[in-house]
Design brief:
CATH topology of the largest domain: TIM Barrel
Cofactor: Zn(2+)
CATH architecture of the largest domain: Alpha-Beta Barrel
Number of strands: 17
Bound molecules: the ligand C[C@H]1O[C@@H](n2cnc3c(O)ncnc32)[C@H](O)[C@@H]1O, zinc ion
Binding site for Zn(2+): 64, 66, 212, 300
Helix content: 25-40%
Number of domains: 2
CATH class of the largest domain: Alpha Beta
Family: Belongs to the metallo-dependent hydrolases superfamily. MTA/SAH deaminase family.
Subunit structure: Homotetramer.
Distance between the termini: 50 Å
EC number: 3.5.4.41, 3.5.4.31, 3.5.4.4, 3.5.4.28
Amino acid sequence: MADNTILIKNALILNPENNIEGKKDLLIKNDLIDEIADEIPEDKADKIIDATDKILLPGLVNTHTHLSMTLFRGLADDLALDEWLNENIWPVEANLNGYYCYIGALLGAVELIKSGTTTFSDMYFYMEDVAKAVDESGLRAVLSYGMIDFGDEEKRKAEIEENMNLFKNCNDTADGRIKVFFGPHSPYTASEELLKEVRRLADETGIGIHIHVSETQKEIDDVSAEKGLRPFEYLDSIGLLGPDVVCAHSVWLSDREIEIIKEKDVKISHNPCSNMKLASGIAPVSKLLENDICVAIGTDGASSNNNLDLIEELKTASLLQKVATLDPKVLTSDEAVAMGTINGARALGLDDEIGTVEVGKKADLILIDTNCANMVPDSSNLSSNIIYAANGSNVDTTICNGQILMENKELTTLDEQEIYQKAREAIDQLKKAI
Ligand SMILES: C[C@H]1O[C@@H](n2cnc3c(O)ncnc32)[C@H](O)[C@@H]1O
Ligand SMILES: [Zn+2]
């Protein structure tokens, strides 16, 4: 196969943790970053991208999504989690099929690419249809099937089989861009037996676990009443927790639970917009970071957010910690950039491959246009400009695995107008079925 070579010229690089000063050229060969230098000759590449007035950073990593729920944007607003899920979302989801999940995932993929996310970790249903959308979009994804058994043994077996089939059929597909995790929904919907079996299978297969934990005060009360322990204490007592577990939300945490998270090297996916919109609470993120816990970022689904703009999510995360602690110095823009890139990569076990701009890593890169009203004057602090001033619509170019998914704000892999049309038709049909 002939080499795919792309040369990005004159880029200001914003790298989490080890920044590279000054303008650089970056050469992509096939799926990898091949060279970063002051000047790389143009004849080394088939394709040249001029990054003058643009900031180059690693593709963003969204560690908690339900991509097909992009179809449900605006469906049930201004409700708390319990009423939102039980009385609104689950009744609609009972009418889902593979096609709806595929179209919803394509719609979400358009939004992710346009706002600079190149990797996302998803938990939902009809995941082989979601995998098809991932394959077509060119994105990178960690996919898990949302397992819910409510203590029913038959259902438990079927749910585990579904996640295992997803693993067998989709893990390492789409040129290696798709990985599969287990997705037990939460400690209040997945039984102890299911969670223990997931731990056993995770050890056997080496794949990770994606779960919602400690999202609301109600969850703490319910789990404590049933198990006599708070959610993280309970999950620890049954042996579920470890470095391969990514816990979404994690809002209500005791000091003992923070110790457990640290001891077990559990990864946290912080979802501030969803937590604010459902009035779930404020996660103690600055305390987690002080304890050197890996905190990554996630949007949750577009039905509780209501968008998938990770730059907006990172700004929200930062401002929310400042106001919650009354300390403007917490969750700085540098920490927010790390949260959206390398911490996400670490949470998903992909930090050898993505999360920084480095030779040898996958070419998952985005360019942000600074020649826009909300980005002028250029700040000498690139992370400040990205986190506090920018939003997803400033993303100009998105590259994943060395493939250009968007250039000059034009998508290359997906037909956005066709997807919008099909998504509108799908949600109209679904609403009629309810
Ligand atoms: C996979 C299932 O998870 C549901 N879901 C979506 N967002 C949340 C959330 O914030 N907490 C709990 N469960 C959630 C989704 O609707 C699927 O049923
Ligand atoms: Zn969720």
